[in-house]
């Protein structure tokens, strides 16, 4: 019995499609919401490398002995209070809604843009350019083969549980 080369080799694309997990719209929305929450939480962290100093014992040439011996009390500037009392975007929207009810004006959530005659634009989830293609597994958009490879390696739902 002879086996042809085509039956042994097979299609790599079809094997890859079998590995993909096709996700429904609610799972896509849940994943999108989770990613947005992670990004929102990431905005409130200070950069851990922002104030690294090589050594605190290195003298600065412009300071004299009186300034070095004096105790340095940390002054609280406006940036300190802004960092301490930061508000989440949902808190800001809620405050705006409550203020709008009191003053009788429109809130941010009440404002709606008019419907357009133009079709919706779709952007690549990897690079941000216009996209024409959609991932079959997770529904995210990409614009080229390079972006598709990046998406498959890092962002696609087929690797998430």
TrEMBL record:
GO terms for molecular function: zinc ion binding. One of its GO terms (cellular component) is nucleus. InterPro entries: Vps71/ZNHIT1 (IPR039723), Znf_HIT (IPR007529). Keywords: Metal-binding, Zinc, Zinc-finger. This is Zinc finger HIT domain-containing protein 1. Residues 124-156 form the HIT-type domain. It comes from Agrilus planipennis. The keyword Transmembrane does not apply. It comes from the Eukaryota. PANTHER family: ZINC FINGER HIT DOMAIN CONTAINING PROTEIN 1. The gene is LOC108735574. GO terms for biological process: chromatin remodeling.
């Amino acid at each position: 019995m002879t086996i042809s080369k085509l039956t042994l080799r097979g299609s790599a694309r079809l094997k890859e499609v079998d590995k993909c997990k096709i996700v429904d719209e609610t799972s896509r929305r849940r994943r999108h919401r989770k990613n947005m929450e992670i990004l929102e939480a990431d905005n409130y962290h200070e950069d851990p490398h922002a104030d690294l100093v090589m050594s605190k014992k290195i003298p600065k040439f412009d300071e004299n002995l009186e300034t070095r011996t004096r105790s340095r009390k940390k002054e609280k500037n406006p940036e300190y209070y802004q960092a301490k009392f930061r508000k989440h975007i949902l808190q800001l929207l809620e405050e705006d809604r409550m203020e709008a009810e009191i003053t009788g004006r429109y809130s941010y959530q009440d404002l709606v843009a008019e419907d357009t005659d133009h079709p919706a634009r779709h952007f690549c989830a990897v690079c941000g350019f216009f996209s024409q293609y959609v991932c079959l597994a997770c529904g995210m958009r990409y614009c080229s083969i390079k972006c598709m490879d990046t998406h498959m390696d890092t962002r696609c739902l087929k690797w998430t549980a």
